[in-house]
Amino acid sequence: MKKIFLTLGLLATIGIAPFAVHAQTYVADKTIPLPGDAGWDYLSIDNVNHRLYVSHGTSVNVIDLNTEQPAGVISNLKGIHGIAIDNKANRGFISDGRANAVVAFDLKTLATIATIPLTDANGPDAIIYDSYSDRVFSFNGESNNSSVVDPNTLKQVGTVTLGGGPEFAVSDGKGKIYNNLEDKSSLNVIDVKALKVIKNYPLDPCGGPTGIALDAANGRVFSVCRQNKGVSVVDVNSGKVISTLPIGAGVDAVAFDPQTKLIFASCGDGTTTIIKQLSADDYTVIQTLKTQNRARTMALDTKTHKIYLSVADVETGTRKALPNSFKVLVFKLR
């Protein structure tokens, strides 16, 4: 009788396991229309104030995540890319690439506080806040360095030489920042106190890495790459590429949900590849979510597990955005 129950239990486990992996399916939830007809780049979420920040040409569209409706606009910028959130100082920081500056604003009122000119910097793009050093880091794509800003004094306090063209970056909150070098197809490890690169890992077979996400608990970084249409899983301690998973074309962003163990890679070909982490070194693609062509930038709300992608409709056969078509696409876990 024990053998019968053991066999039934084993069959149940075998039958349920694949279902559990594939049960996490994302579906379209809603669309949030936003004003303006300019281009777009990064999205960023402020979990404390429940807001989504959407870069949009010369302004930032702000969405209230409680109502998922527009809540304001930060305007009069020259050409922005990213938004970093520092809840400790109640300030946000915008990388203004065309102004070679970082713009600080109040997280509660959205009022601009200061424009911080950057020294020896050209084309600030990605930007993050590092809680360990209490500093803001902009990653300057045209000068191969990172500008370091004190969020309290609103002054630049340093520069990190990166050795290549930086793309996205992520902080571990323990003294290190991981940053993709797009032209070198490699991963930098930055010491936030010494303000220098202490390691550089090749990402082969990755080519042209853009977005990056971190699984802090397992010490894994996920770098998405355009040339090989893949996501590289990297052991941050050894620098070894553990696995490479297939994704769509024209990838830009990637996010990791530590609760659901899902990785999202948003691609310009109108798909978001969703990958399940089975263990630190074992991964499988579970869904190719249809989004919209050019919906390549994304933010994940780890509280609701929703993902948000910005995009506009374009004229057929061109890259020209149609007027009044800019929006954020919202997808939820079913």
Q: Can you offer a commentary on this structure?
A:
The protein has 334 residues and is mostly beta strands. It is 6% helix and 54% strand. It is built from one helix and 28 strands. The chain has one helix at residues 2-22; strands spanning 26-33, 40-46, 51-56, 59-64, 69-74, 80-86, 91-96, 101-106, 112-117, 124-130, 135-140, 145-150, 155-161, 166-171, 176-181, 186-191, 196-202, 209-215, 220-225, 230-235, 241-246, 251-257, 262-267, 271-279, 282-290, 297-300, 307-311, 327-333. The strands form seven sheets. Strands 1-28-27-26 form a four-stranded antiparallel sheet, with no helix packed on it. A hairpin with a 4-residue loop joins strand 4 and strand 5. The radius of gyration is 20 Å and the shape is globular. Mean pLDDT is 93; it is low at 1-20.
Short description:
This protein is 6% helix and 54% strand. With 334 residues, the chain is mainly beta.
How widely separated are the two ends?
A: 39 Å
Radius of gyration: 20 Å
Largest sheet: 4 strands, antiparallel
Total DSSP E strands: 28
Mean pLDDT across residues:
93
Number of helical segments with 4 or more residues: 1
The 3D shape can be described as: globular
Helix share, percent: under 10%
